[in-house]
Write a structure and sequence with these properties.
- By secondary structure, the chain is α+β, with helices and mostly antiparallel strands.
- The protein folds into three domains: 2-224, HUPs (Rossmann fold), CATH 3.40.50; 248-322, Uridine Diphospho-n-acetylenolpyruvylglucosamine Reductase, domain 3, CATH 3.30.465; 333-463, no CATH class.
- 42% of the residues lie in helices and 21% in strands.
- The protein has 16 helices and 22 strands.
- The chain has helices at 2-14, 31-47, 64-78, 89-96, 100-118, 130-142, 147-150, 169-179, 195-210, 214-243, 255-259, 263-278, 286-297, 370-373, 399-406, 455-463, and strands at 22-26, 50-57, 82-86, 123-125, 156-157, 160-161, 244-247, 250-254, 304-306, 311-315, 318-322, 333-337, 340-344, 348-355, 365-369, 376-380, 387-388, 397-398, 418-421, 424-428, 432-433, 446-453.
- The protein has a six-stranded mixed sheet, with helices on both faces. A five-stranded antiparallel sheet has the order 7-8-11-10-9, with helices on both faces. A five-stranded antiparallel sheet has the order 12-16-19-20-21, with no helix packed on it.
- The protein is elongated, with a radius of gyration of 31 Å.
- The two termini are 50 Å apart.
Amino acid sequence: MKMERLFLQFVQRERLLDDNGRILVGLSGGPDSVALLRLLMAVASHWHLELRAAHLHHGIRAASDDEADFVRDLCARWQIPLTVGRLNVPEFARREKKGLEESARELRHQFLAQTAQETASDRIALGHHLGDQAETVLHRLVRGAGPTGLSAMRCRQGKIIRPLLVFPRAQILEYLEQRRIGFVKDASNEDCRFTRNRLRHQVVPLLRELNPRIEEQLGRMAALFAEEEEYWRGVTDRLVPQIGQRLEEGWILALDRIRVLEPAVRRRLLRRFLEELRATPLGLSWKQFEMLEQLLVSENPHAQANLGDCWAGRDYGRLWLLKKALPAFEPFALTLTVPGRVAIAGVGELEAQVRRYSDKRNDWIVEFDADAAGNVLGVRSFEDGDRFHPFGMGGEKKLKDFFVDAGISFWLRRKIPLLTVCGTIVWVAGVRRGAQFPVRSDSQRILQVTFRPFEEFSSFWYGGACPFGEKTEF
């Protein structure tokens, strides 16, 4: 049959299937998914495929029960193993304050991904066709998408394949009619309260009057943008290690390197960082990019912006992109009795002990003459006006200036513990000791203080050093 031959040629050309693969078909019972399953059955022997199906009962309409029964009967006749799941989409939509369409799509993808994992399936096959692609392009165009959004759906994205993406709906219906294969009709597809249905029933027919092949044209445009996106993905792959450093909670970007990029490159690179931060390619708006651009050129070295579900903060030569804003600063002032230890929530722990000999010293361990320093130490946070006499320098300086010279992040300064003796700062923990109470050759007792940062603090601390990869020309 012609449709099966064309289907085989497209799948081969796009390399959508592998030998001996296990394919999970998302089967709603509608014409597209039913045709997809039948077509895969027709070509299964070519790749020695094992086919399975998965159906999600959305709990949206009374007809959902009938659809699930139809899918069960169909898979029983065709001897296809079937997994049926049931979720309450309306309840999820109300709880998450999302639209019904968006919620159904999100839960459906989660269900298919979980089922694919449970059944050890290599691919998830979806029945999107050329008309769906055209509607997606128009939908994103209306929402103000750029080239990335207009690339729309791909015939292969990770484990997901869409073998019908180049076939119009009419051709799919004709194939089902020729094969005398039944399917269910989703009445909600006629409800023009939903945006996609308005596009399908009102906008696309109007555009078809201007261009009878509008769906094909929009599909071709999406494919062209997709090819462009593949090129830009390679460009950003090379730039990411030069511009950004990964943290557990996000990224730190080198401002001087990202500023010199051309706007088109910079915008795509920022999108790449935000996509990885948010774990989704959708929902990024021009407003977010405009806010980031303002941060890049702002005269305020510590500007910040809330980007909805993530946060950006500028810090001299760095731009922080985090899943959420850094926690609000909580001042602390504690007493550390020797020997003993104190813990600072969200920061770390300091421990003081007296030793008879000098031990290893590094950024996290400092030593003083115990008899000179005494047995009662203070541990507090940075305050405006603080002054500090760093070891090895001729005199004291403003602690703020010391932080600037040392490249300490603005967003971390008030989190760094300051060790004090009688009010004098003798150690900026993890950064530099003061000039007071040095260990001498005749010191009888040695006071050793250790700072152990907690994981949530050390992630940002190490990021403050900004060790970006070697810079290369774009």
